[in-house]
């Protein structure tokens, strides 16, 4: 498919998903009132609901989805592993552990910024530990193994916090956060997440040419003048900061980074650089539509966003399993 058509089409889907996110909620608001508010007018009730409640949620869904989609595409290109996503490097799990520590010790009661701060700090510490374990090796396999070790350690820490919870309510609070949600988010959350996500996206989109060169292998990329060490450093910092900021406001949401690159790849020339921007747009649209779905699915309490994205990820795993079976 022509790249301009693909980007334009995905951009249109993103706009539609954003408008649906504004239009769906427990209080029905007609599209004429929504357009009046978006145009700067509208009545006070509609403005309060749309601007103070639904707009931050829509912006966060778009931004978090864009970050996860781009991170998945960049990691799959760098590691040359079709099942790579941010959790492969342990960044998501380390960020989640940082947030769980803030919840477990009640630090969020001291200041609301403690939750995102510790989440980002957890991702950065996970990155530092990853770099320490990987050492000077430039092999993607070494990085994957080190990422699995960091992620497993972070999961163990999270499980320990749940096991040692002082009361069932604290455990339920931690579990609810780990399942992921964008419910009741405000512009304070937007101000926390957007700068981190913007920095992460810039760093990930920077290395498209290097990712293309890596399809020839490390030696081939080095022969083409790619500095593998700097490429890896930018990639890891971009994932740590961007995913840390996203996890800080949304909780642990998986599978977006895994699903989206596989959905857009057949529509491109399959080179890693050609998948980055479409994956960013596709991630924004998919997570926003998933967030719309949790609001319209009739349940006694709102579904958690991480549950919906997990169900979306299962078919992708099954498709890869069937493809691999043909090779066995």
Number of strand segments: 0
- The low-pLDDT segments are none
Shape: globular
Portion of residues in beta strands equals: under 5%
Number of helices: 14
Would you tell me the overall average pLDDT? Answer: 83
Radius of gyration: 20 Å
| Quaternary structure of the protein | single chain
What is the helix/strand order? HHHHHHHHHHHHHH
Going by helix content, strand content and strand pairing, the class is: mainly alpha
DSSP helix fraction: over 70%
* Major sheet: none
Please write out the topology.
Layout: H1 3-23, H2 31-38, H3 44-79, H4 91-104, H5 114-134, H6 140-163, H7 168-178, H8 187-206, H9 208-214, H10 218-223, H11 228-250, H12 256-264, H13 272-296, H14 305-327
Describe the structure.
With 328 residues, the chain is mainly alpha-helical. It contains 14 helices and no strands. It has helices at residues 3-23, 31-38, 44-79, 91-104, 114-134, 140-163, 168-178, 187-206, 208-214, 218-223, 228-250, 256-264, 272-296, 305-327.
List key phrases describing it:
mainly alpha, 328 residues
